[in-house]
Amino acid sequence: MSDTRRRVKVYTLNEDRQWDDRGTGHVSSTYVERLKGMSLLVRAESDGSLLLESKINPNTAYQKQQDTLIVWSEAENYDLALSFQEKAGCDEIWEKICQVQGKDPSVEVTQDLIESEEEHIEEMPETSPLIDLPTCELNKLEEIADLVTSVLSSPIRREKLALALENEGYIKKLLQLFQVCENLENTEGLHHLYEIIRGILFLNKATLFEVMFSDECIMDVVGCLEYDPSLAQPKRHREFLTKTAKFKEVIPITDSELRQKIHQTYRVQYIQDIILPTPSVFEENFLSTLTSFIFFNKVEIVSMLQEDEKFLSEVFAQLTDEATDDDKRCELVNFFKEFCAFSQTLQPQNRDAFFKTLAKLGILPALEIVMGMDDLQVRSAATDIFSYLVEFSPSMVREFVMQEAQQSDDDILLINVVIEQMICDTDPELGGAVQLMGLLRTLIDPENMLATANKTEKSEFLNFFYNHCMHVLTAPLLANTSEDKCEKDAVVGSTKSNTICPDNYQTAQLLALILELLTFCVEHHTYHIKNYIMNKDLLRRVLVLMNSKHTFLALCALRFMRRIIGLKDEFYNRYITKGNLFEPVINALLDNGTRYNLLNSAVIELFEFIRVEDIKSLIAHIVENFYNALESIEYVQTFKGLKTKYEQEKDRQNQKLNSVPSILRSNRFRRDARALEEDEEMWFNEDEEEEGEAVVPPVEKSKQEDDFPDSYEKFMETKKAKESEDKENLPKRTSAGGFKFTFSHSASAANGANGANGKSVAAQTSPASSNGSSSKNATLTTAVTAAKGSLVGLVDYPDDEDDDEEEETSPRKRPRLGS
């Protein structure tokens, strides 16, 4: 179906009297057996589905407007329109409709003269096909007003009145009477004229509107509508339209037809929005044609402006010219904002052409300049234009910023300008920031990124974004959770109240927005965000916000962690356990006390998820480090359930080990305890040197039965010693009521050379170590790389290289044989 003549857009009129686009397709007129008559069929061009099936009813009034539109009412309160791509196609279908109705195709409206038999007998005697209008004189105004208001309830009489008004050129005569009444100050006559003109508008006829809204008549129509009988004093609408409302031409418009169309649209919109009262339920459909009139006028204006390339080029030249003064630039930006708003009325292919024209002329570099300006109004208008562009084609915007990155500094990149506008929003409610955050989200959403044969937009753009823009986005978050701020509080006994967190509501809101965006990244960007989180130790910084007095911000931080855990990625899990990052969450739960609120529920849901999904490495970490603090929580079974899962896994591992043949546990595989310890120290030292690198290791394989069989006996030997040490290191509530965890790294534990001391080493991330000084933990957040990118095992067994490549666990967990 490549026939563009029959290509149409189907519109329906919604409850708000706006035209809704129902899709694009190809129209045909054929006999439909089921409907017993000739019907209009529109099949979607995308998938061939039926968009419209409408029988051409002999009694329905069809209207042809502006050469490419056919409008009709299918049923009470259900208006339809077909907008044709080409005039020829419209004429063809119009002929078919007129043929069915027995009309001459030269008419603009096919009349609906019979609605039902009863009304036909009652209201349409054969001798009187039209309504006889009283002569247009001052003393007949009351009679005319009564006639006009009486016909509004009957569709047939409305049609007949409209025909009579049209045939006799009656509207112009009425407007001459208006001038007479105004000169004579005949208030009663003016009140009647208000009723008459309002009634004629409610007849909802495009042909009458053409007369009423012409240049010579429209001001008199507005004049009539000033004299509402219910008002003590008439309104001064004409004064507003002629003196107050100024037509601003940013660049002089030379086309007189275009100027006239702009004036007409503005005035008709004014009549609809300001002068006419909001329609009641019974009048909702009375002004549907007026809405259509405005809608299609806007389409025409955009098309005419778009075709005038000289005009648009001049606008752009002035917008980007440094010599342009601020007031002029403000007007130019507002013009574009309105221009883009009007463009929403275009059909998709025309809207495509419209935005491509803007892109070709350089709308994006121009926006970059104006978005950085001081004037709030200009920035706001520029944001609106930017949102139209992002909505239309995120790919176009992405392509522009990636090309721009090759030529300019990070600071002036369009996306960074947008992020800075978001961060610097002065509105206490952050209205602008919320809008910009939505646009950023669209731009970084892989769902709308294209993959072509020769390049992948997703990988290219995300590489660009994480290299050039991510640091700008996270700067406020990192600044508000910086280590020097946190270290001041990292003393035993510190409580929620003295942790420095953004107490300013506006800052808290901004951080919440940034966290929402980062949470979106965790969900959709996989390894880019993973590397970023590891390199910046981002989750630890985010969890500082669990101390915020603004619960919504603490919940945002928790949601970020929940999304990470929801991925069930062992790499993230190791990062969390090594960094002891459950501690701030558990502190928040305990500080929340017995309050049954959203924070309480959200934290419990996090642990419940871990239990239900049976994430073994996290279950082991939580039970081993925090169970004593959590076992008192009995109003949910979550924590007891975690303990049960942990014990079941432990039993399972023991059973597996007992079934391992004794030859595998012979001394041949055993190594000296001190050598083990040295290897671990080497691992931690290397980690410090290579801080800042994050390599994603392969996900753990579940080969526990082969994993370190020779260390099991040593593990059992030191288990008792370790348990007694654990009791000393259990988390305790501090004197100030806060709940902090400290772990000692005692010599006795270190000498238990089976690696069980890994627990105390990995857990040295609490605010205070046993000697009271803050410990440096950055080393625990990075993975270790070897020269060729292969992973260095925690403990080096020359005889067991294959296993090492397949699996890496933290030193604390290896000997337990269950993760």
UniProtKB/TrEMBL annotation:
It comes from Strix occidentalis caurina. GO terms for cellular component: nucleoplasm; protein phosphatase 4 complex. Residues 681-693, 797-808 have a biased composition (Acidic residues). It comes from the Eukaryota. GO terms for molecular function: protein phosphatase activator activity. Pfam families: EVH1_PP4R3 (PF22972), PP4R3 (PF04802). Belongs to the SMEK family. Residues 746-775 have a biased composition (Low complexity). One of its GO terms (biological process) is DNA damage response. Residues 681-819 are annotated as: Disordered. Residues 143-648 form the Serine/threonine-protein phosphatase 4 regulatory subunit 3-like central domain. Gene3D superfamilies: Pleckstrin-homology domain (PH domain)/Phosphotyrosine-binding domain (PTB). This is Serine/threonine-protein phosphatase 4 regulatory subunit 3B. Residues 5-101 form the PP4R3 EVH1-like domain. Residues 700-731 have a biased composition (Basic and acidic residues).
